[in-house]
Specification:
The complex is a heterodimer of chains A (216) and B (230).
Chain A lengths: L3 H19 L3 H39 L5 H20 L4 H33 L5 H17 L1 H10 L8 H11 L1 H25 L12
Helix pairs in contact in A: 1-2, 2-3, 5-6, 5-7, 7-8
Chain B lengths: L1 H16 L7 H46 L5 H6 L6 H8 L14 H40 L4 H20 L8 H48 L1
Helix pairs in contact in B: 1-2, 1-7, 5-6, 6-7
Classes of the chains: A mainly alpha (216), B mainly alpha (230).
């Protein structure tokens, strides 16, 4: 009951999803849509549980007065403002959009832009050209970066003006993206896909059961 | 309202940029506010675009239709709306997630997890087969048909051959069932070279993406925020 029924449900939903996608019959397509709707209905509950866990974690921080506990109140403030305005009014409401555009979007973009600095310092440490592979990676990254901005072509035209190719930085960048980059990406995609398929088969057949957790 | 928005956005932008100096209360404030707002927005979107249209509304219509049927005012529309009552099943399964909060009934959480995992695994097999295996193989082999028809330039022919060699060598690198020695070892080394070029290209694009965001934020501070003052 505690393990066999979940395994059976996993098998049933897995098989239904595979079979309905291969069958064009209207009844089969109806089942397919209904199962997708079920998934979309069940998913929000997982989000609510995750939010409950987040609230629990921050409540514990506040109760125990751990270091920087005051910032947990800021988490609650942000969440409460968005939920109290957003749930009754909906995400299309102008107040919710104002909060989204003037608070969330700027912070999101700034957080990611901050990575420009850290990625540069990480690159300095990681890309010291010690081996042939590291050198290849470094040179490719440099060409792709220089080919992305107009100054790259300007440098190419000034320094490598004797070459019979104008605006070479952007052209070489495009060639790298279109040929060797595509080849390696396809290799990775094929490898990952075969892994996904084999793992999915193991899950559906009940060979892989780690998602059930421990206990009986 | 617009000016207030610009000032708040500028303040939060500067709060986050202050981390470049070192960790400080302004950064921590913005970081925690960001977490709270993001979680809140996710809840709002999930409820309004997922739960309400897919579960709540059909269920409400189903309950209303049931009342109409019981009072003998049923119509073909109400009979159809009765199917909305079945939404109680996924709602009930979803509610089992909260069994996690009760130590005695924690095992019940396996039911919704098993359904979601089974669904995801089942959906992945045909989709991955089609999009990632058939389409990628098709894309690799198609240029050879065009080559046979004589409609490819020399550059495109070299490109198609290089892509195929790179793909095979990359796959050989990931093939661990044989020892990477001799010809397999050489193919594997070529595969590593292609992979390094791929990683370098991905790194270069990521850096440029982040720099573009940085330029955008600095542009916002100079043009929108300072522009509103001076």
């Amino acid at each position: 009951m505690k393990r066999q029924v979940p395994l059976a449900l996993c098998f049933l939903f897995g098989i239904v999803m595979i079979l309905t996608q291969f069958s064009p019959h209207s009844y089969s397509q109806g089942v397919y849509r209904e199962v997708i709707n079920w998934n979309l209905i069940i998913n929000p509950f997982a989000l609510i549980l995750a939010v409950a866990t987040l609230i629990q974690t921050h409540m514990t921080r506040i109760q125990r007065r751990t270091e920087h506990w005051q910032y947990s109140l800021v988490v609650f403030l942000g969440m409460a403002v968005m939920v109290l305005i957003g749930i009754p009014l909906g995400p299309q409401n102008s107040y919710v959009e104002w909060l989204y555009n003037n608070l969330q979007v700027p912070m999101d973009a700034t957080m990611f832009s901050l990575l420009a600095f850290f990625i540069a310092s990480a690159a300095y440490r990681a890309f010291r050209a010690r081996t042939f592979e590291a050198t290849l990676l470094l040179i490719t990254a440099l060409i792709v970066m220089m080919g992305n901005v107009p100054v790259g072509d300007l440098i190419w035209n000034s320094v490598l003006s004797w070459l019979p190719m104008e605006d070479g930085a952007s052209k070489v960048r495009q060639w790298i993206l279109d040929i060797p980059n595509l080849a390696s990406r396809r290799g990775i995609i094929l490898g990952v896909s075969l892994g996904v398929i084999s793992q999915s088969i193991r899950i559906i057949l009940g060979i892989e059961r780690s998602y059930l957790g421990g206990g009986d | 309202m617009e000016v207030l928005g610009i000032w708040i956005a500028a303040f939060l932008t500067l709060c986050i940029f202050s981390f470049l100096y070192r960790d400080n209360p302004f950064y921590r404030f913005a970081e925690h506010l960001f977490i709270g707002l993001s979680v809140g927005y996710s809840i709002v979107v999930t409820i309004h675009q997922g739960f309400i249209p897919l579960a709540w509304e059909p269920l409400s219509e189903g309950v209303n239709a049931l009342q109409s049927e019981l009072t003998s005012e049923g119509t073909p529309e109400t009979k159809e709306a009765l199917s909305g009552l079945f939404k109680i099943i996924p709602i009930g399964i979803g509610l089992l997630f909260f069994a996690r909060l009760s130590p005695r009934h924690t095992w019940l959480i396996r039911y919704p997890i098993a359904i979601l995992i089974g669904f995801t695994a089942g959906a992945a097999i045909p989709n991955v087969l089609q999009a990632s295996i058939f389409e990628q193989t098709y894309g690799t082999l198609t240029p050879f048909a065009a080559m046979h028809a004589g409609s490819l330039s020399t550059g495109d022919i070299v490109g198609a051959i290089l892509i195929t060699i790179g793909l095979i060598c990359t796959l050989v690198y990931f093939f661990f069932s044989v020892e990477h020695q001799g010809p397999v070892g050489w193919l594997s080394k070529v595969g590593i070279a292609f992979l390094m070029i791929g990683f370098g290209a991905a790194f270069g694009n990521t850096v440029m993406g982040r720099v573009a965001l940085l330029i955008h934020r600095v542009g916002f501070l100079i043009n929108d925020w300072l522009g509103s003052i001076f």
